[in-house]
Design brief:
Layout: H1 6-17, H2 58-65, H3 69-78, H4 86-94, H5 99-105, H6 113-122, H7 150-162, H8 170-191, H9 200-222, H10 229-246, H11 256-269, H12 274-281, H13 292-301, H14 305-316, H15 325-338, H16 345-356, H17 381-396, H18 405-409, H19 414-429, H20 432-444, H21 450-463, H22 468-477, H23 488-501
Length: 507
């Protein structure tokens, strides 16, 4: 779903940034501290971030990498010969946002077998072929699954095969799913599930654990398997812990598996009997999950628009305390307008009419209001956009061929420029909403900065190349259309935008 690779992205950003004209002397920003931001109403503009010392050398970058995971990932890319420590390697691994990124890091982690095992698990690497192939899966309850060794990887491969292999009993498939759930949860704990927000690799592992853990709970209830009672109970509690951690993490860059499994697991945890079982375990219950409107926000952000309609309109008439059709319909219409999703307006009106036509018809006004939003634990998009803009201003202040010797001595080095570009890329990679907010700010400025607009367009093309909001920004940023061949893409985008605004395309 996301194809962003740090090395290629930084290379393209460096090439685009060469068009910068006027340098800006702003220094590097301090990484934004995690703080609580009110969801409604939007918070005020953030205060300017503090500016730490510049990073001009690989040695300085190595010192920063021991503290800040983004700097660790950048260090391995920009300074591959600089000595590293296990802490730096751990930070770099936590920043890997895909199986491909984890696989690329695996050779660098040879000196830290525990980290290399997690990287190989995420990359679905095969075990050492010299090992004897497994013919029987270890007991999912008593097997040693941490650290991830070649033996564990071989068992993972066998468990994946047994999920679909013909001729196996349902008990065998349930045990295979239980083994996969336990392996991925143990790896998630090694990586730091307690950290919030979850780092990129933890989100990849969380998506897999939610899938295998939820499947284990479903399969266990369909057919009780002797010996898995305690593992089932602990897995259900771990599912809630993982979803709670995800709901304290920005969801905008979730991959397809995590986006789907987050919702499916949330619905499982809200199912009948789960709250009672979790209460017996002594931990938090499903009431600790974010309220309903935050669920709709996430689904809208992931473009599960039809699912929002179905769920919201079902709750409009769900006994014994329905919300009512009129308040729910008003909320959905407002969400479509606020999110530039009016191409779905006709579909929404059809779904509302179908709901009102049910027999018995749900009430127009319900017996309880929609639950309010609560403060979120991550910065809003404008705060992230401001921080990314500071990094980009630092990158734009690199010396040019016409810079005097005195000015060059006070300008960032090439390493500083590339580091600042990489920090901006990593920051906006996790927050496409902030990238769009920053691009809107650039397009509304009296004088556009071509370098910054080009950087943001390149980044958004990798992160969000199909949404109407992204298309609208690309059309707004395009140069005037003329008869040149270079205007063909801009003309096609303008036509596509006009067609979607006119609702000529079924979406």
């Amino acid at each position: 779903m996301r194809r962003l690779v740090l090395a290629s992205l930084v290379a393209s950003l460096v090439a685009l940034s060469a068009c910068a004209d006027e340098p800006d002397p702003t220094g590097l920003p301090e990484p934004l501290a995690r703080h609580t931001v009110a969801a409604v109403p939007p918070p005020a503009a953030p205060a300017p971030a503090a500016l730490p010392a510049r990073i001009d050398t690989c040695e300085q970058l190595a010192v920063a990498a021991a503290v800040h995971p983004p700097d660790a990932a950048i260090l391995l890319d920009l300074c591959p010969t600089t000595p590293t420590t296990p802490a730096i390697l751990r930070h770099a691994l936590r920043m890997a946002d895909s199986p491909a990124a984890a696989a690329a890091l695996a050779p660098r982690l040879a000196a830290t077998p525990d980290l290399a095992g997690i990287a190989r698990l995420v990359a679905l690497d095969r075990a050492d072929p010299s090992l004897a192939p497994l013919t029987e899966l270890p007991d999912p309850v008593t097997a040693t699954v941490s650290p991830v060794t070649d033996a564990v990887l071989a068992a993972v491969q066998l468990a994946i095969v047994q999920q679909t292999q013909s001729g196996l009993s349902q008990d065998q498939r349930t045990r295979a799913t239980a083994y996969l759930a336990r392996v991925h949860h143990e790896a998630l704990l090694q990586l730091g599930l307690a950290d919030e927000p979850l780092p990129p690799l933890a989100r990849v592992l969380a998506g897999r654990f939610l899938h295998f853990g939820r499947e284990l709970c479903r399969m266990y209830w369909q057919r009780r398997v002797a010996g898995l009672e305690a593992l089932f109970a602990s897995t259900e509690a771990q599912l809630l812990t993982t979803v709670l951690a995800l709901e304290r993490t920005p969801h905008f860059s979730a991959d397809a598996l995590l986006a789907v499994e987050h919702q499916r697991t949330r619905r499982h945890l809200q199912g009948s009997g789960v709250a009672e079982r979790l209460a017996r375990s002594g931990g938090p219950g499903p009431s600790a999950l974010l309220p309903l409107l935050h669920e709709f926000d996430r689904l809208f952000d992931h473009r599960f628009v039809e699912l929002v309609f179905q769920r919201a309109l079902f709750l409009a008439g769900e006994p014994p305390s329905p919300h009512g059709v009129a308040p729910v319909a008003e909320m959905l219409r407002a969400q479509l307008a606020d999110r530039d999703l009016l191409e779905y307006a006709d579909l929404l009106e059809r779904r509302i009419d179908e709901t009102r036509a049910l027999s018995p018809a749900p009430p127009e006004q319900g017996s309880r209001p929609l639950p309010p939003r609560v403060p979120l634990t991550w910065p809003e998009d404008q705060a992230i956009a401001e921080l990314a803009a500071t990094w980009l201003r630092t990158a734009a202040s690199s010396p040019t061929a016409t810079t005097t010797a005195t000015a060059a001595a006070n300008s960032p080095t090439e390493l500083t420029r590339r580091h600042a570009l990489a920090r901006a890329a990593l920051l906006l990679r996790d927050r496409p909403d902030a990238a769009r907010a920053l691009l809107r700010r650039e397009l509304d400025a009296p004088a556009r900065d071509p370098m910054r607009v080009g950087l943001l367009l390149d980044l958004l093309a990798r992160l969000d190349d199909e949404s109407l909001a992204g298309l609208r920004l690309r059309v707004a940023a395009a140069a005037p259309i003329d008869d040149s061949p270079a205007s063909d893409d801009a003309r096609r985008r303008a036509f596509a935008l006009a067609a979607r605004d006119a609702r000529l395309l079924p979406r």
